[in-house]
Amino acid sequence: MIRSVVTGVGGYLPEEILTNADLARFVDTSDEWIRERTGIRQRHRAAPDQAASDLAVEAARKALEAAGRSPAEVDLIIVATTTPDLTFPAVATIVQRKLGCPVGVAFDVQAVCSGFVYALSTADGFVARGRSKCALVIGAETMTRLMDWSDRGTCVLFGDGAGAVVIEPGEGRGDASDRGLLGFALRADGTKQDLLYVDGGVSTNGQIGHLRMQGNQVFKHAVINISEAVTAAAEDAGVGIPDVDWFIPHQANQRILNGVASRLGLDESKVISTVAEHANTSAASIPLALAQGIADGRVRRGQLLLLEAMGGGLTWGACALRL
């Protein structure tokens, strides 16, 4: 059977770094307060002239280089983002233009922090069915532009960045030993919208708005919902949780990461965590963490990975893949 195989991974973080101490100069907070509650030490912030597409292009170039592919070979681009350059066109079409890719398929996916997992599943529908030979799946966010800097409960949590993967078709035997995307579990519950949302929009008040969150409630739902989705994705792939080499979660909060790992019975040594350095980069957090794990040599070809995320909507989901 045809599998959707990840052949290249790349990440990009803007140059400017905001430490907790930097934030404490204009936000009623402290390094100790932030680290104790979230595990975050710093976050990156896009330059004023950097849009989500600019971050996406940098990550995509690195992923293409790692895969040994050129922009001329890309026939599908899916960008997961909740902070697009413009209301339209899609960031994916802007990335297509900036990379110099040929005419193909390009569109965005909006599932907030779960966007990258949703986008992977969508790309799998193209690649595994023979409709794409070289796909770019990108998570790119400028979350700092949604912050209310007077709300210390939210503004300290988020950062900017982008991560990308190249997905190509590969032959498999149809079992869990195959390389590629092996299983998914995607979920949404619109009744929980008030727990995490932005209070502005084109067709409501015509404003960008600010991110609003009920942190305690989000934490409670995150640990329970994510654990269920991860288990379901593993079952869909035909693998057991003990078989997993690396758990690469959405980097929302170190306490959530620890809570999910504990609930799943995963040793914390198997968890890739970048939340201390990157903070929550929404749809970019999983591919950025994956890129970091590959760069430092922990994550290697042939290993079994479990990815998960939860975001506004509420949306959540998980993916099992063999690199």
Write up this protein.
- This protein has helices at residues 20-24, 31-38, 52-67, 91-99, 115-127, 152-155, 215-237, 254-264, 275-278, 285-295, and strands spanning 2-12, 16-19, 42-45, 76-80, 105-109, 135-142, 160-171, 180-188, 196-198, 211-213, 246-249, 304-311, 315-322.
- A hairpin with a 3-residue loop joins strand 12 and strand 13 (315-322).
- Helix 3 packs across helix 4 (91-99) and helix 7 packs across helix 8.
- The chain is built from 10 helices and 13 strands.
- The chain is 32% helix and 26% strand.
- The protein is globular, with a radius of gyration of 18 Å.
- The mean pLDDT is 97.
- By secondary structure, it is an alpha/beta fold.
- The strands form 4 sheets. Strands 1-7-6-4-5 form a 5-stranded mixed β-sheet, with helices on both faces.
- The longest helix has 23 residues, at 215-237.
- The chain starts with a strand and ends with a strand.
